[in-house]
Design brief:
two-stranded parallel ribbon; 11 helices; alpha/beta; 33% helix
Length: 341
């Protein structure tokens, strides 16, 4: 729902986030760090002055309602299409391998909006990778000026950094491919650039071990997550956000693996994965998680915190309104005091 042209946050987006300011921490929708990093039409960016100004309005409004907000920094890599790229260029990836079964959201030349299969990407040259890091650094600088409380590096869900991490999507022979250390290199270089801009205590990272969509099939999913968790811990970042894989067809995370994550990372550990309020409380009470994140329930329930507090029923999200559109299915879900008698 970003404003067009230019993928700019608007007053409608400001209203949406302000409605949800009671969350302990809002993590925004994924926000592309460059035009190259876009894989879905109408998603916001953080690489132009107008986008920065739009996000500044969002942050100010959330803060005025005593909320806290993190910007999720995103490059989709191969989950894209030439219709979304500048001058109709091919999407980029660690290797020239199409994401089997993956789709992206585009606007066709005739104006029709639809999900279409992703296109064959071109492999990034080694000398291009410092430029990718610069895209994140510049985005972080803009986000810092906009006043965000935290920045979250999106290294999950089959997007560019995850494509570099995964054994099947990264077939490189240079310093960014092969060994686990090499496959993790770009994620850590991006993280270090973001830390350099805003400081480790204002940075989080999102990972999704065992994620099984977007053509991802990582033979070392747990090993890479634990390697990165230890590297994050050494850098002292604020939090690690684990997107659980079961909704995408991956296996449920084991208690043993969760315990290993907990042992590897001293910062705040956040899990996200279709939890109920009771399930989330149990995970926190057990000491496995410091917090639990909610996605789709928060779309349909701006007052989710209040509903949890009172054990109230939840509105069910309307999936047909998730992508594109206006206020309907975005800012017009009823709150508790507006529920019909």
């Amino acid at each position: 729902r970003a404003g067009q042209p230019g993928d700019i946050p608007t007053a409608l987006n400001t209203e949406y986030y302000t409605q949800r300011a009671s969350a302990g921490l809002i993590v925004t929708e994924a926000t592309q760090v460059s035009r190259q990093g876009q894989g879905y039409a109408l998603t916001p960016g953080i690489y132009t002055d107008a986008q920065e100004a739009g996000w500044t309005d969002v942050v100010k409004a959330v803060h005025a309602h005593y909320g806290h907000i993190a910007l999720q920094l995103w490059h989709v890599g191969r989950i894209s299409h030439s219709l979304l790229q500048e001058n109709g260029a091919a999407p980029v990836a660690p290797s020239a391998l199409i994401a089997e079964g993956a789709q992206c959201f585009v606007i066709q030349p005739d104006g029709k909006q639809e999900n279409v299969p992703t296109e064959m990407p071109r492999a990034l040259e080694t000398e291009e990778l410092p430029g990718i890091v610069v895209q994140y650094r510049q985005a972080a600088e803009r986000a810092k000026r906009a006043g965000f409380d935290f920045l979250e590096v999106h290294a999950a869900n089959g997007y560019l950094l995850h494509q570099f991490l995964s054994t099947n999507s990264n077939q490189r022979l240079d310093a960014y491919g092969g060994s686990l250390e090499n496959r993790a290199r770009l994620t850590l270089e991006v993280l270090d650039a973001v830390i350099d801009v805003i400081g480790a205590k204002q940075v989080g990272v999102r990972l999704s071990p065992h994620f099984a969509a977007h053509g991802i099939n990582d033979a070392e999913a747990e090993a890479s997550a634990l390697y990165l968790a230890k590297a994050f811990n050494e850098r002292g970042i604020a939090y690690l956000h684990i997107a659980e894989p079961d909704w995408a067809g991956g296996p449920e995370l084991s208690d043993a693996f969760r315990a290993q994550l907990r042992a590897a990372f001293d910062g705040a550990l956040i899990f996200c994965g279709g939890y109920t309020a009771d399930d989330a409380e149990a995970l926190i009470d057990h000491g496995t998680a410091d917090a639990v994140a909610f996605g789709r329930p928060f779309i349909a329930n701006a007052d989710l915190v209040e509903r949890f507090r009172h054990g109230a029923a939840l509105n069910q999200p309307d999936r047909t309104t998730f992508y594109g559109g206006g206020a309907h299915g975005y800012t017009d879900y009823p709150t508790l005091d507006l529920q019909p008698a």
